[in-house]
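Researcher: We're teaching a course module on how sequence relates to structure. For the next exercise, students receive a sequence and then see the predicted structure as C-alpha cells, so they can try to spot secondary structure elements on their own. Here is the exercise chain.
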Amino acid sequence: MSHSKHDPSRRYQKILVIATHCIGDSLLITPFTRSLRVAYPDAQIDVLINERGGMVFGTNQDIDSLVEIPPRPKVSDYIRLVKQYGRYDLVVNEMLNDRTAIYSAVFGRDRLGAVDESLTGSWLKKWVYTHYISEQHRFEHKLSRASRMLSLIGVETVPEIISPEESLPDHIESRLPDSYLVVHAPSSNEIKQWPVQSWIEVICELSKAGYHLVLSGAPSPRDKMIVEEILEHFSDSNSITSVLGELSLAQTSTLLKRSQGFVGPDSGPGHMASGYPIPIVSLISVAPASMWSPWPYKVAVDEVNNLYRNGVSQQRVGNIKLIQSERSCVPCYKNKCPISDDLYSPCLRDITPAQVVDAVIEMMPLRTNNAG
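Model: And here is the predicted structure for the students to work with:
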C-alpha cells in the first residue's frame, strides 16, 4: 500500500534527506541523494545528520549542505535550524521512528516517508506524510524500499552506493602491495561475529595460495582485540598488511576502491565496498540477507521481488557472493541468540573456512588480481 498527493508537474527546488542513522545505514541513504540529484540537478539537496554523519556524507558531491541536529533536540534547536536553513519543499525520511517524523513535520512542506501500519499511532504518521509507503514485513532490501518511496514522487532510483573518499596517507601507500584483497574480520557486535579462529584459517589458506591481504579495522577496542588476535598468528608473514585503526572512514573506502576485492561480514565496510565494481564475499546469517546484504554494483532495483534469498547456503548476484547458514531459524534478527549462550552464534559457526576460501577463489581468482 502507498499513498501520494504528488503533482507530477511539481519541481522541488529545496530538498532535505534525513539520515540520522548509524554509519552502515547512512550509506544506504546515498541512493536517495544520487537519485534525487539526477532527477533535480539544479535543486538544493541537504542531508540532516547526527554528529558522525559527516564521515559518510562529507565528500558526497550530490549534497549541497550537511545539517547537523543534536540526538535529542530542544525546541530552541528546531527554531535555530529553521532560521538558519528555512523550510524545505520536500523532506525525505525512510526511518520509522517518531523523532524523525517530527523532523519531517517541522522542516518540510511536502513529506515523503514510510509507515508501519502494525504499530500504534500509524494514523498520525499518515497525517504527517504527504506521500508514504507501507512497510511490507518481508525483509525487503533497503534499496527496494527506497525505490518504492521515490516512485511516489516520480523519481527513478539510481542503484548506486556513494562511498566517501579521501586520499590514503603516504605511510600507508608505501606499505600496500600493487594488488591486494581487503579482509575485514570484526563485526559490529558479538552476535554477528564469525569465529576469530575461522578468520585465521581463511587468511592462512589465502596467504598460502598467493594472495596479498590487507586487514582493516576501526580504532575501537573491539576491532583492535579481534584483528590483533589474528595478527599474532602471522607475525612473520610478508603477504599480510594491517591498517588497523590507521584510516578514516573515507580513507578505508579508497583502500577498498583500489583493491581486487573485499571479504567480510554484513557491515559498514561491506556497504562501502558495494559502491565499487569489485568482487565481494559477504558472510551473513543473523540479519536478513534479503534486507542488509551489499547491493550488487549498479544492478537495477526490483520493487516486488527480493534480490537475495534468506537461509540459502550460497548465492551469487552480480559482483556479490553471499554465504549464510541454512538453519531454519535464519535469519532470527535478534540481539541475542535464542538457542545458544556460546560466544559465537551457531548459525555463524555453520559457515566453514573452506566455504569462504572457495568463494574468494571463485570471485577473485589469482589470474585476475595478479597476486603472488
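Model: If you want an answer key for the exercise: The radius of gyration is 21 Å. Confidence is low (pLDDT under 50) at residues 368-372.
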